[in-house]
Design brief:
Elements (H helix, E strand, L loop, with lengths): L6 E5 L3 E5 L1 H5 L3 H13 L6 E5 L5 H13 L11 H11 L10 H9 L7 H10 L4 H6 L2 H15 L3 E3 L16 E3 L8 H7 L5 H5 L4 H10 L10 H13 L1 H5 L3 H6 L1 H14 L6 H12 L5 H12 L7 H4 L11 H12 L6 H18 L7 H9 L10 H13 L5 H11 L7 H9 L5 H18 L3 E4 L11 E4 L9 H36 L18
Parallel strand pairs: 1-3
Antiparallel strand pairs: 1-2, 4-5, 6-7
Length: 544
């Protein structure tokens, strides 16, 4: 038997086949030509070898061809192997000119009955094209199988093939030439209930690779920016969601294969808008398609649509996992807020609703150790002052942030408070807590108490004049000129006034200490005594 294996064939550099030269080349015009050329190069060598690259299906495809040749031109053709056999026959030139009833003729005869295949048969054959898609597509086989698949759609009445008329061309589901409708009358009630959430064919088509799904969508005339079908958009969402395991494996090439489908979903959602999807649905779409490398135009279009409906969001909706090292995707929320605020037609009621939502959001994301001060400021300052009747929520978020970020400098803490808070809109309780909060810089506390005292003075009609100690170098004056009729001041206002005085004297004491320390340093510099001066008997005043 060994003498018959006089030819080695290396297929795609993966596997070597030892075959008989005459048997394997009897049905293949291309193999005959390759062997003849190789013999001219290696005269006098009994055993020769040839390399075949880019063979459809690799070793599996060549093994099927070998079986055909060794079985005297006979092989059982099935729906699972017909696509591979057909592409191999084209690649090797196994035509009628070489041998009668050759492999190409047998596969073409089998494919002639394609439109009589069952739905599952077509799916199996399409699925088998995944490993040699380029050959199957260039030969026209994929297109033939896709049309057969669409014909099955039409037979089941879920998609009706019809040319769009001028009267119905504006309909999102008929513009592509196919109308998506409900299940047939023959469908059982239980099947109808199951299909109420999604059509029966969603899971069936999900087994197909992305390139073939693209082919199906293009055949429907709904690929990319041309997508105006709600059902097709929902199917692609279902398909992408089931393929998220590809992302977890970290294959960038695999992710790029789904980019076109993700863009098709985005364009469909943008076109159909809030008439077809709720805010939560659109936000979910953005989260799904963003995993597949969405283009900038698609992302901007979706965010513009979603941001305009931000008043419909809930706190749970906004708590999206981050992709840049943070726990939450704060950048996305910030972009959505800016879109919402940029709309001049937004009512004051909706603006205040979003303000309350963002205050809660800030409180949730504040403990994130990776949340930068700039991001916190960006979210807090993104809303106008009119969006908040009260700034207690912002103060609570700042307090949490300062607790979670103890290494912030005094300047950064002051910047957070001064830029995020409107002291006049703080409640009395929040202002008291701020004044006692050791994490809040003293200057901020003085400013807050002063603003609050002014508000209280206006409410009780006294004349209250305050001059900042910072501007007058610790020369401060607190003038209270009450009328004889205003002697009954509330206890809360009195407590606030006392707190303010204590804060003022604290600042005075700090500045006095600084002057004394400077004086001591100046005297030490002037003295020419080499040994340090004895310590002062008088104790330095407490700084805090």
């Amino acid at each position: 038997m060994a003498e018959f294996c006089n030819l080695q064939i290396h297929v795609n550099g993966q596997q070597t086949f030892f075959v008989n030269e005459k048997i394997i080349s009897k049905y293949s015009g291309r193999l005959k030509k390759i062997i003849k050329q190789e013999k001219g190069k290696t005269r006098g060598i009994e055993k020769s070898s040839i390399d075949i690259d880019d063979f459809p299906g690799g070793a599996d495809g060549f093994e099927l061809v070998s079986r055909f040749c060794y079985n005297n031109g006979s092989i059982i053709v099935t729906v699972s192997n017909v696509s591979l056999l057909h592409c191999c026959a084209i690649f090797l030139g196994m035509t009628e000119r070489i041998s009668s009833c050759n492999l190409l003729q047998q596969t073409e005869t089998f494919l002639d009955g394609l439109f009589y295949w069952s739905w599952n048969d077509i799916l199996v054959s399409l699925k088998s094209c995944e490993s040699f898609f380029s050959y199957a597509d260039s030969s026209g086989l994929v297109e033939k199988l896709v049309f057969a698949l669409l014909a099955k759609f039409a037979q089941n009445s879920d998609i009706i093939l019809a040319a769009p008329s001028s009267s119905s061309s504006s309909s999102p589901e008929t513009a592509s030439g196919f109308r998506f409708s409900s299940p047939t009358k023959n469908t059982s009630p239980s099947a109808r209930r199951r299909s109420s959430s999604r059509p029966w064919w969603f899971d069936d088509l999900s087994i197909l690779p992305p390139k073939i799904i693209e082919k199906v969508v293009k055949s429907l005339g709904a690929y990319g920016a041309e997508n105006n079908s709600l059902v097709l958009t929902k199917f692609l969402l279902h398909y992408l969601q089931k393929k998220t395991s590809v992302i977890r494996k970290g294959s960038l090439n695999s992710r790029s294969e789904y980019g076109g489908l993700a863009g098709t979903v985005a364009y469909g959602a943008i076109l159909l808008g809030e008439t077809a999807f709720s805010w939560r649905g659109l936000f979910w779409i953005l989260r799904v398609v963003s995993q597949w490398g969405l283009s900038r135009d698609c992302r901007i279009g979706l965010e513009r649509l979603i941001g305009g409906m931000l008043d419909q969001a809930t706190l749970d909706d906004l708590l999206v996992c981050g992709h840049d090292g943070g726990v939450y995707d704060v950048s996305l929320v910030l972009r959505l807020i800016r879109v919402f605020v940029s709309d001049d037609s937004v009512s004051n009621q909706k603006m205040k609703k979003v303000g309350r939502l963002i205050d809660k959001y800030l409180g949730e994301v504040s403990p994130d150790q990776n949340l930068k001060v700039s991001k916190f400021l960006g979210v807090a300052e993104s809303l106008p002052d009119s969006a908040r009747d009260c700034f207690d929520g912002v103060y609570r978020a700042i307090d949490i942030y300062l607790q979670s970020h103890p290494t912030l400098s005094s300047e950064e803490r002051s910047r957070l408070c001064s830029r995020c808070l409107n002291y006049e809109k703080l409640s009395l309780e929040a202002c008291k807590d701020l004044a006692k909060n050791p994490k809040i810089p003293p200057k901020v506390a003085v400013q807050a108490l002063a603003a609050q005292s002014q508000q209280c003075s206006i409410a009780s009609t006294p004349e209250f004049v305050y001059e900042s100690p910072i501007k007058s170098h610790a020369q401060m004056a607190l003038y209270n000129s009450f009328d004889a009729d205003s002697t009954s001041v509330s206890e809360e206002n009195e407590d606030l006034r006392l707190n303010l005085q204590r804060m003022q004297w604290r600042v005075v004491e700090l500045e006095r200490s600084c002057r004394e320390m400077k004086g001591q340093m100046s005297r030490m510099a002037k003295s020419k005594i080499s040994t340090p001066s004895p310590p002062h008997n008088r104790a330095m005043p407490r700084l805090c």
